[in-house]
Amino acid sequence: MDSFSCRRNRVVKDGRKTSVVTFAQRRMTSPVENVLIIGAGPCGLAAAHALSKVLPRDTKIDLYEKAHQLDVPRGAGLGMTVNGLKSLRAIDKSVFDHLVDQHAMIIESVNYLDPLGKVLRTEHGEEMNRKQKESYGLHGVQVGWFELVSTLRETLPPNVAVHTGTRFLRYQEEENNHGLINVYFEGQEEPVHAGLLVAADGYFSRVRQQCVGDGHPIFGGNLFWRARVDASLAQKFNYKSGHSAWYFGDNRVALVFTISKGHMVWTASCPEAELVDAGIDWKTVTKGKEESSAMSSDFIQRSMSNGEDAKHRLLKVFESFDQDQLLQLFKATDPTAIVEHALYVRPASDLRPEWFGKGRVVIMGDAAHPMRPTGQGVNQGLEDALQLAKCIQEAGGSFEMLDRFRANRTERLRPIMMEAETRGKAAYQKSAVAPRYDTAVASKEQIQMNPEDFEAFLFDGADFEPLEVQA
Ligand SMILES: Cc1cc2nc3c(=O)[nH]c(=O)nc-3n(C[C@H](O)[C@H](O)[C@H](O)COP(=O)(O)OP(=O)(O)OC[C@H]3O[C@@H](n4cnc5c(N)ncnc54)[C@H](O)[C@@H]3O)c2cc1C
C-alpha cells in the first residue's frame, strides 16, 4: 500500500496488512466526514483533489486501486483539450501549472496523410493554438497518460490516502444510518465505511454494475493498438517531435504524436470488418476478457506476454499502409510496449442521470460515460471531478445536491457523447481527412451542432471558476 494515514485499526489478513474503521470509531465519524473513491485513474485522482478543496480539511478521503503499483510507466498519451485543462486549473492551479510546465507538449503541426503516407493537408499548430487561446484563454496540449496520472498522484493533499492492490467487491447501504455505506474489498472480511462512495473504476465499473445494474458497456466495433515509444525511435522514421501525423483511409486510422521531449506515442485502430477481412478472429482476442481488454492494469500486465501476437495482428491489418514510415515504426516497436484493446461504449441515446449513481453513490469518468475516443474521455472525467466538487461546495459541504450534479452532467454529456459517436464513425470514412469533420459524415442528420458552435459549447459551456478552498 502506498500510504495509510488515517486513524484506523490495522489487522493482518492473508499475510497482508489491511485497515478497517471499527464501529466504535465510526460513531465518532459523521457520514459526511469521509469519502471513499474507487479507482486511481485520472478521474479518481482528480476527484480526490477536488473534494479535498470543498470538504472540511479534516475530511478523510481514501482512494482504493486494484493495481499493485502505480509508479511504473504505463499508458500511452492523451490530448488535453481546453475544457479538461480549465477543469484541472479550477480544481488546483498549482497541479495545472506543474503539469503544463513539466509535461505538456505543444502541437507544432498536424499532417493529415493518406494510407500510403502522402500528405493531403497540414494544420499549423501556432495558428490553431493562437485561435483557441484568443477565444477561450487556453489551448489544447498533449501529455503522457502516465505523466498526467503521476502528477495528480504525487500532488495529493495529506488528507488523501491511496491504497493500492485493493480490489473493490461490493457495497451495502446501511438503513437508518444517515446513508452510511459499507464497502467490501477482496481479501478483507470487515467493510470500510463511507459517507460518500465515488466510483471512478473505469469501463467495467463494478460499482456501476451494482448501483445501476445495466450490465457491461457494449463492444463499440473497433480494435485498438497503442504504444509509447522513445522519441528517438520515431525520429529514425522521420517523425518529428511536436509534429503529429494522422493517417486516414481504407477503413483504418493511425496517429503518431509527441507526449514529452523524450517520448512519442502511436495509436492504430480499425473496425471489426477489417479484422474479419484480414482473417483475424478478434473474438478470441477479447472473449471472456472484457474487463481486461479495456486498458485496465491487468490487461497492461497481460499484454506484456501477448505483445508479439498483438503486433502480428496490427501488421496484418495495416500491411498496405505507408511502408517507409508508419510500418517501419510499428515493426521497430518492442512488442511488450504494445497494448491491444477493444472499444466499449454506451449509446448516448441511453444516457440518463442514474448513470452518475444514486443516493450517496456517485459514478464518474469512464464508469459513467464510456465513449468513443475522440478526445473527450479524460477531459470529461476531469469535468466530472470539478462539477461534483462544485455541487458539494454549493450545498455548504453537504451531499444534498448530488442529484443536481447528475442532472447537470447528463445534460452536458448528451451532445458530447452524440458527437463522439458521429465523429468516431466518420473517422473511418474516406473523406475523414476533410478540414471539417461534418463534411466527412455520411448522414447529415447525425450532426448535432456545427463544429464552431460545438467547440464553443465544449470549451466554454460549463462553470470553470476555481473551487473555493474550505478552512
Ligand atoms: C493503465 C491505463 C492506461 C491508459 N492509457 C490511456 C492512454 O494512453 N490514452 C487514452 O486515451 N486513454 C488511456 N486510458 C484510459 C483513460 O484513462 C480513460 O479512458 C479516461 O481517462 C477515464 O479515466 P477514468 O479514471 O474514469 O478510468 P480509468 O483510467 O480506466 O481508471 C479506472 C481505475 O480504476 C481501477 N479499478 C477498476 N476496477 C477496480 C476495482 N474493482 N477496485 C479498485 N480499483 C479498480 C483501475 O485499475 C483503474 O486504475 C488508460 C487507462 C488505464 C487504466
Summarize the structure.
This is FAD-binding domain-containing protein. The protein has 471 residues and is α/β, with parallel strands linked by helices.
Q: Figure out the total of helices.
A: 15
Structure class: alpha/beta
Let me know the average pLDDT. 85
Small ligands present? flavin-adenine dinucleotide
Q: Roughly what percent helix?
A: 25-40%
Strand content: 15-25%
Shape category: globular
Question: Can you lay out the helices and strands and say which pair or pack?
Answer:
Elements: E1 9-13, E2 16-20, H1 23-28, E3 34-38, H2 42-54, E4 60-64, E5 77-80, H3 82-91, H4 93-103, E6 109-113, E7 119-124, H5 125-136, E8 141-144, H6 145-154, E9 160-163, E10 168-173, E11 181-185, E12 192-194, E13 196-199, H7 206-211, E14 218-230, H8 231-236, E15 243-249, E16 252-258, E17 263-271, H9 272-277, H10 282-286, H11 297-317, H12 326-332, E18 339-345, E19 361-363, H13 377-394, H14 402-426, H15 451-460
Parallel strand pairs: 3-4, 3-13, 4-9, 6-15, 13-19
Antiparallel strand pairs: 1-2, 5-8, 6-7, 10-11, 11-12, 14-17, 14-18, 15-16, 16-17
Helix pairs in contact: 2-6, 2-13, 3-4, 3-13, 4-6, 13-14
What does this structure look like?
InterPro entries: FAD-bd, FAD-dep_Monooxygenase_BioMet, FAD/NAD-bd_sf. GO terms for molecular function: FAD binding; monooxygenase activity. Keywords: Monooxygenase, Oxidoreductase. There is one protein chain. With 471 residues, this protein is an alpha/beta fold. The protein folds into two domains: 9-72 and 155-216 and 348-457, FAD/NAD(P)-binding domain, CATH 3.50.50; 77-147 and 218-345, D-Amino Acid Oxidase, Chain A, domain 2 (2-Layer Sandwich), CATH 3.30.9. Helix content is 35%, strand content 23%. The protein has 15 helices and 19 strands. It has helices spanning 23-28, 42-54, 82-91, 93-103, 125-136, 145-154, 206-211, 231-236, 272-277, 282-286, 297-317, 326-332, 377-394, 402-426, 451-460, and strands at 9-13, 16-20, 34-38, 60-64, 77-80, 109-113, 119-124, 141-144, 160-163, 168-173, 181-185, 192-194, 196-199, 218-230, 243-249, 252-258, 263-271, 339-345, 361-363. The strands form five sheets. It has a seven-stranded mixed beta sheet. A five-stranded parallel beta sheet has the order 9-4-3-13-19. The chain has a three-stranded antiparallel beta sheet with strand order 10-11-12. Strand 10 (168-173) and strand 11 form a beta hairpin. Helix 3 packs across helix 4 and helix 3 runs parallel beside helix 13 (377-394). Mean pLDDT is 85; it is low at 1-31 and 297-304. The protein binds flavin-adenine dinucleotide. Flavin-adenine dinucleotide (FAD) is lined by residues 38-44, 64-67, 74-78, 145, 167-168, 200-202, 206, 226, 295-297, 300, 365-367, 373, 377-378, 381.
